[in-house]
Each structure stands twice: as C-alpha cells, then as structure tokens.
Amino acid sequence: MEAMKHKHVVKVSNYPENEAFIYCPKKNLFALIRLGFPLTCPVCGETFKAKNEIKIVLRQNLKDFKF
C-alpha cells in the first residue's frame, strides 16, 4: 500500500499584503511567504503552479490544518 502524500498547507495571515504561513510536510517546518503563483516553498524548494497543488486554509484556528 502506497503512503499517503501530504500537501503543503497555506494559512493566509494578512489579506492586504498577501502574507501567509506555509507548512512544509517534507521538513515539518513553517515559513512566512507572500502568496502568489507560481509559489516556491522556501523550506524544501518545491514549486507550485496552481492552487489545487496546495491546501489553503482561511480560518484563524490552527485546528483547520488537520495534522
């Protein structure tokens, strides 16, 4: 059975400035980014070209990350 692939998670923190936190499941770390595509994860270097390649969380509660 193949292991489940986890997506990177982006939590928007400041709408006017397009700032967001990104969670990298490969390194188990968070980083601060400016949201825009193409998006490159500063932790692992993976590039995302579309919204469907990552999980975007808008609510303020970190329980929405569902780890």
Key descriptive features of the protein:
two-stranded antiparallel ribbon, mainly beta, 67 residues
Topology:
Layout: E1 9-14, E2 19-24, E3 29-34, E4 39-40, E5 47-48, E6 55-57
Parallel strand pairs: 1-6
Antiparallel strand pairs: 1-2, 2-3, 4-5
Description:
The chain has 67 residues and is an all-beta fold. It has one domain (9-64). The chain is built from no helices and six strands. The strands form two sheets. The chain has a four-stranded mixed β-sheet, with no helix packed on it. It has a two-stranded antiparallel sheet with strand order 4-5. Strand 4 (39-40) and strand 5 form a beta hairpin. The radius of gyration is 12 Å and the shape is globular. The mean pLDDT is 82.
Shape: globular
Profile the largest sheet. 4 strands, mixed
Mean pLDDT: 82
Q: What helical percentage do the residues reach?
A: under 10%
Q: If strands are numbered along the chain, what order do they take across the biggest sheet?
A: 3-2-1-6
Strand content: 35-45%
Strand segment tally: 6
- Which parts are unreliable, with pLDDT below 50 for 5 consecutive residues or more? none
Treating each run of at least 4 consecutive H or I residues as one helix, how many helices? 0
Q: Give the ordered list of helices and strands.
A: EEEEEE
Gyration radius, to the nearest Å? 12 Å
Q: How many domains in all?
A: 1
